[in-house]
Amino acid sequence: MVLLKISEVESRDLGKIVNLEQAVFKENAFPKKILKKLIGKNTFFLKLEKGQIKRELLGFIIVLNDGKENVNIVNFLIKPKYQNKGYGSYLLQQTIEEIKRLKFINKIVLNVQISNKKAIKMYEKFNFKRNPTILEDYYHSGEDAYLMELDIES
Ligand SMILES: CC(C)(COP(=O)(O)OP(=O)(O)OC[C@H]1O[C@@H](n2cnc3c(N)ncnc32)[C@H](O)[C@@H]1OP(=O)(O)O)[C@@H](O)C(=O)NCCC(=O)NCCS
Question: Which of 26, 49, 51, 59 could form a disulfide with 78 if both were Cys (CB 3.0 to 4.6 A apart)?
Fold first, then answer.
């Protein structure tokens, strides 16, 4: 059985997080400075690891809470060789559960590249609704984005 663990990202994880971010998001990657700032700052910055003694980082998710009633998933990825095996669903599911425990949150929002069919399908699986308005030129790469939202019932 694969032992999985979800926990808060700490400052000492920064190097691994930056490498994975760059490997997956390339020109759209958050720079190190931003990732560093996001650790421990009004966020659920959660990592998914495998293994007991020597843990391997499989992915992470960053959810920003600006103190209002919405939270924003600003970053979410799974290491390429572990994609399509259910790990992303697991991390997202657990994160949604964590967010629901914050009683004052009533909506989760996120942006996704309109070409990212896989991610869109995954969010729809979790009942996120896609806003039909396209956000043009949203990413550094010039790609357009969709806004997706999940209402949290209280
Ligand atoms: C998007 C991402 C986080 C999903 O994580 P994952 O571990 O690969 O996803 P899962 O294996 O849990 O699959 C989740 C769902 O995605 C969809 N999916 C998976 N592979 C797919 C494919 N090849 N084509 C279409 N949909 C697919 C399915 O709905 C799947 O659910 P199901 O298996 O119950 O049908 C991951 O692929 C990733 O890191 N991608 C690159 C970064 C990224 O795009 N992040 C999201 C930015 S908004």
Answer: 59
Between 66 and 51, the more confident residue is 51
Residue 1 has a pLDDT of 67
Each domain of the chain, given as residue ranges in start order, spans 4-151
In angstroms, what is the span from residue 125 Cα to ligand 1's centroid? 10
Residue 14 CB less than 6 A away from ligand 1: no
* CA-based nearest residue to 128, from 104, 107, 113: 107
Neighbouring-strand partners of residue 112:
146
Please work out whether the CB of residue 26 comes within 6 Å of at least one atom of ligand 1. no
Q: Class for domain 4-151, per CATH?
A: alpha beta
* Euclidean distance between CA atoms 113 and 147, whole angstroms: 9
Model confidence at 32: pLDDT above 80: yes
